């Protein structure tokens, strides 16, 4: 028999993490409010290919970070919904309990460690 999960404590953790993720996304938006074309036009060296490549790489890194943060934000929101509907801490694959240690490490997880490992192995 597993111990009851303190869902209110996890709700607080998830909300704190949600705030941090949203701040990171907002920061990325502040750093790059315009399009990539706007940025390359502002390069003072006559759009030298090396300068354009640097701007492009920096922007691609930021897009990747924003995309990753967006996925985390969606996972956090889904975890908050699972708290509300009573399914938080239940593996979506086997319907078994997700271990408390795993929830502590990754509170927005949807799978127990065994199912996650099976999924990763393909």
Q: Indicate the overall shape.
A: flat
The average pLDDT is 84
Helix content: 55-70%
The N- to C-terminal Cα distance equals 30 Å
Order of helices and strands: HHHHH
Low-confidence stretches: 35-41
Structural class per helix/strand content? mainly alpha
Can you put this structure into words, describing what you see?
The chain is mostly helical. 68% of the residues lie in helices and 0% in strands. The chain is built from five helices and no strands. The protein has helices at residues 7-31, 36-41, 49-85, 100-105, 113-121. α1 runs antiparallel to α3 (49-85). The radius of gyration is 20 Å and the shape is flat. The two termini are 30 Å apart.
Record keyword descriptors for this entry.
122 residues; mainly alpha; 5 helices; 68% helix
Describe this structure in a few short sentences:
By secondary structure, this protein is mostly helical. Helices cover about 70% and strands about 0% of the residues.
Question: What's the layout of helices and strands?
Answer:
Elements lengths: L6 H25 L4 H6 L7 H37 L14 H6 L7 H9 L1
Helix pairs in contact: 1-3
């Amino acid at each position: 028999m597993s111990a009851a999960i303190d869902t209110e404590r996890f709700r607080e953790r998830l909300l704190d993490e949600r705030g941090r993720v949203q701040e990171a996304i907002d920061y990325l938006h502040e750093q790059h409010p315009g399009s990539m074309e706007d940025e390359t036009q502002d390069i003072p060296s006559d759009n030298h290919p090396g300068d354009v490549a640097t701007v492009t790489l920096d922007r691609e890194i930021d897009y990747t970070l924003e995309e990753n943060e967006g996925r985390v934000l969606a996972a956090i929101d889904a975890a908050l919904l699972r708290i509300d509907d009573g399914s938080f801490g239940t593996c979506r694959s086997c319907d078994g309990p997700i271990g408390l240690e795993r929830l502590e490490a990754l509170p927005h997880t949807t799978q127990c460690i065994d199912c996650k490992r099976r999924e990763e192995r393909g």
